[in-house]
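pls design
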């Protein structure tokens, strides 16, 4: 019984109970069979553990002791499931195998690992991965192997994800690493890594980024850059480093560009290039210190030492590729 008390206490912390909060309530364990060999206790057959607002189920559970006789690790196998319900909030973790390290305060779910957080029966966050590790002390989830996350209207795919949860059980920070793809309504962002702040709804993508947005008229704006930062509150997309933007027959390049709302609208409509930039429209090339491209109505303006050149596209690429206007 002492072994199980340690196990359940860890699951309570795992499922987002604030640090330092413990419960002195009865523990109820059901199983078809229970054996103890001096080093470990094994529960088999419809194992079910109830403690406070926690329910754990699996076909088999094993609790191991250290050399000193204290609980050292616990393993749920053959398909494990843990559920915490408190008021309107519900959290759950399920996987083929769930391992708990009592010494490291860490749990690892392996094999089709899934974790979810619900509020008023509505799923807020759902994480799927080959494996998920939970740092109980710091409330950090690390997911690896084909990671997929659904958070509100945001869908993500990546090689790895690191999610930090605050003491109230809410997402505090999300870090997506390796072959990242984020699908948010009508915009798809790809990058080497993406950092997302759920509180401010700010998304930062450093390293070989691209974003593709569908406008209200069904046309696309495609943006390539070394860095992109989107602030949902202001509806402004900031890009820098080898910026290249494609819109209809426009191809614009420059060191930095901001995609901003125009005329009091909440929808981004104007792209402003800062620094020496160039825009191509068919066989016309315009270069200036500042370019402003308007999506609707479609037009652009160039300011500051403006130069224009009309040339055959093939000829320009072959003979004048590296020459400035």
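designed seq:
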């Amino acid at each position: 019984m002492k072994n199980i008390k340690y196990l359940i206490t860890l699951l309570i912390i795992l499922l987002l109970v604030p640090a330092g909060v413990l419960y002195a309530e009865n523990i109820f364990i059901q199983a078809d069979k229970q054996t103890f060999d001096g080093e470990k206790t094994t529960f088999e057959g419809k194992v079910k553990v109830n403690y406070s607002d926690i329910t754990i189920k699996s076909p088999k559970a094993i609790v191991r002791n250290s050399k000193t006789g204290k609980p050292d690790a616990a393993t749920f196998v053959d398909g494990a499931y843990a559920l915490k319900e408190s008021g309107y909030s519900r959290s759950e973790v399920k996987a083929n195998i769930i391992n708990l390290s009592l010494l490291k305060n860490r749990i690892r779910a392996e094999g089709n690992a899934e974790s979810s957080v619900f509020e008023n029966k509505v799923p807020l966050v759902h994480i799927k991965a080959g494996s998920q590790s939970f740092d109980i002390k710091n409330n950090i989830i690390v997911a690896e192997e084909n990671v997929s996350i659904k958070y509100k209207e945001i869908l993500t795919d990546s090689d790895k994800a690191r999610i930090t949860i605050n003491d109230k059980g809410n997402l505090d920070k999300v870090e997506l690493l390796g072959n990242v793809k984020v699908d948010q309504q009508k915009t798809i962002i790809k990058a080497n890594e993406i950092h997302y702040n759920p509180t401010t709804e700010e998304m930062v993508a450093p390293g070989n980024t691209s974003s593709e947005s569908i406008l209200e008229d069904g046309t696309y704006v495609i943006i390539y850059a070394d860095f992109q930062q989107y602030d949902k509150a202001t509806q402004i997309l900031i890009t820098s480093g080898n910026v290249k933007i494609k819109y209809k027959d426009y191809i614009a390049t420059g060191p930095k560009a901001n995609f901003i709302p125009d005329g009091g609208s909440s929808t981004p409509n104007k792209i402003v290039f800062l620094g020496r930039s160039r825009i191509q429209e068919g066989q016309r090339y315009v270069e200036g210190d500042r370019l402003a491209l308007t999506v609707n109505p479609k037009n652009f303006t160039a300011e500051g030492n403006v130069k224009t050149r009309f040339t055959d596209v093939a000829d320009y690429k072959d003979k004048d590729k590296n020459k400035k206007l």
